[in-house]
Amino acid sequence: MRIEMDLLKFLLKLLTFLLYLKPIVGSVMVLLFFLALNFAFLFALGALAFAFQVARGVS
User: Which of 47, 29, 49 is closest to 39 using CA atoms?
Assistant: First the structure.
């Protein structure tokens, strides 16, 4: 019975630890998502500008 109680306490501690970490992980995920969006936007803008330059160069 003692071992089961220790295991339960350990799992409870792990759960509370994960709950403490959750907001940090969430904010990091959001930050990474916005960074990815930013890079995608810049890449699309660059590609558009490049295509425009090529089109202007051809004509």
Answer: 47
